[in-house]
Amino acid sequence: MYGKAFAPEYQGALTALSVNSSLVDVLAAGTEQLAAAERSGQRGEAARSGLAVAEAHRRLGQVREADRAWKASYRAARAAGDTAAMAWALWSGGTLARQRGAFPLAWRLLGLAAELGERGGDIVVRGYSLAGLAETGRIQGDYEAVARLHEQLLAEARKRGEARHTVWALEGIAQIHRNRGSYDTAYAMFEEAAVIAAGADDRRGHAWALRGLADIVSVRDRDPERALGLLSEAEESCRAMNLSSALAYNHKMRGNVLYRDGRYAEARDLYEQALAEFRAMSEPRGEALSRLGLAKSLARLGRDSAETAAELADLARVLEHIGLRHAREMVTRAQDELGVTVEVVK
């Protein structure tokens, strides 16, 4: 039913690159091809090779370089009159904006990308851009607004037999179910995503699915060792492909598993590691979630309650500012769990 996963963001002379190519290799190949295209005045090729450069930088956590690269790709595409390439550049920029926690900008860029994709007749970039909008809403906790779009995109991906997008949609819907407490449904969807990703040789999608399964196994089944085993398997793929952000989220989830098992000192160390990784790549959502886990772990290890309350108050303010509704609710639950009072200072 599903073919082998492919990476449509690797275009032009870079179409031979695999979805599983190391990001270091993608960056090297993209940079070389971009320079060649610019020397020969091939603006369309410069736009498409520049897209791969932007995506490699983004996934490696190199925010400034990614920002420069997607904007250069857009300018080259506009100069070439290539509407679809313009859409892809905007998609990359919107995805980067979401990664940086700039949600209003992400909504604007991804919406423009979807419009240009439709105008340029590129259904793939249109689909990726709509998926980006859905993921942005999901991350912000606006489930009612985006659940239907997730389902629509899943149906379209299944119809086309597009493994990578099917996996993405399954994981997004599964995460919504997990956050609502429907663990059995979430597990089944993460499990299906893992099977499809493995069959399509989509190591990135498979790693995210394993992370989701580990979370459910830890919460629902209270089986920390199995959860840690799943995370170790996922980490192998993250390291092989240099997936900096996915690896940091893997470490943060490992901290969650250890915390739930009462292994607070080990959890503290993992949260500190993840926090440093997220700060290095300027990813505020991951940073805030790691700070939350760290605050809870330190409280369990005897930190002064006033210090814990102050930390949670600051986190609540940060999450209100970013616009992460679900994460803000997690701070409230931490307040109740630890018996501290949080006053949000806006």
UniProtKB/TrEMBL annotation:
Signal peptide: none annotated. InterPro entries: TPR-like_helical_dom_sf (IPR011990), TPR_rpt (IPR019734). This is Tetratricopeptide repeat protein.
